[in-house]
Amino acid sequence: MSTPVIKISNLVKRYHELLALDHFNLEIKEGEVFGLLGPNGSGKTTTMNCILALLTYDKGSIEVFGKEMRPDSYELKRQIGVVMQNVAVFEELTVYENIDYFCGLYIQDKALRKQYVEEAMEFVGLQEFKNFFPRKLSGGLLRRLNIACGIAHKPRLIFLDEPTVAVDPQSRNKILEGIEELNRQGATIVYTSHYMEEVEQICTRIAIMDKGKNLAIGTKEELKQMIKKSEEIRIEMVDIPQEYLADIRNLKHVYEVRFENHNLHVLCSGGKHNLLRVLDYLQEKELSFGRVYSELPTLNDVFLEITGKELRD
């Protein structure tokens, strides 16, 4: 087994009476795009700040690339890129100058730095905006600049905190494609987002945390197997007698039935051919119905069942 890129053991962090991290444990492997999910106040930002040695903590240990992470671990920090949610660039510098400045914090060789800056601009699609000042950029382009500043020095480990918040669909797709390309080039990514569809699209493993604890961890398929719902059937109907709802509730693998807004909702746990059994019953009772939908559980379903909250709460 290779050494984890990040290993957090028994981490405790208190803010006076608030227990922000409660004996938190986590391992992230090399080459992963690792999604860190949690509602507001769950401890995600505290976790990242502890990993980056920006915060002290009360108990536990953090290793990055197999070495203890401390405030003065400069050799480790040179291998890390950070793109936080709030855009952090200099308004008085152009796109090129901003990327060059941040890259220069890690790369002293001028020729190599120039190469890296050019590659970073090309990577995020900002070549034609190189002489623009940040105030002249759209929100999506500004996000791309923020990413370029964080990854220009070609770090092995990259933290991306809500990198697509409040951007247009074109920029979002460009950013997500860029993250996947960074991973293909060998970077390990730690990714947080309030957009479940993004996490499902790009993350190889996901941790769900709340109240400073790691509640569940695994691939999206593994997480979906942890919850009760395996299928939701929705059928458009004008009406259905109450006694028939009880009959459907007694069908194999069905655990919840409800009728609302002219839609029959049937929730199933495990099993095959659930939709066929429900349709056979409706046809046997000569009930007319409209469109039929069968949906597998989503990552949002997992999150809601495990935490009891919506991600955007």
CATH architecture annotation name of the largest domain: 3-Layer(aba) Sandwich
Radius of gyration: 24 Å
Taking pLDDT < 50 over at least 5 consecutive residues as the criterion, the unreliable ranges are none
The rounded distance between the terminal residues' Cα atoms is 38 Å
Q: CATH superfamily assignment of the largest domain? A: P-loop containing nucleotide triphosphate hydrolases
Number of β-strand runs? 14
The third-level CATH topology of the largest domain is Rossmann fold
Give me the number of helical elements: 11
Could you tell me the strand content as a percent range? 25-35%
| Number of domain modules | 2
What does this structure look like?
The protein is of the alpha/beta class. The protein has two domains: 6-224, P-loop containing nucleotide triphosphate hydrolases (Rossmann fold, 3-Layer(aba) Sandwich), CATH 3.40.50; 231-296, Alpha-Beta Plaits, CATH 3.30.70.100. It has eleven helices and 14 strands. The strands form three sheets. The chain has a six-stranded mixed sheet. It is elongated, with a radius of gyration of 24 Å. The relative contact order is 0.14. The model has no long low-confidence stretch (mean pLDDT 93).
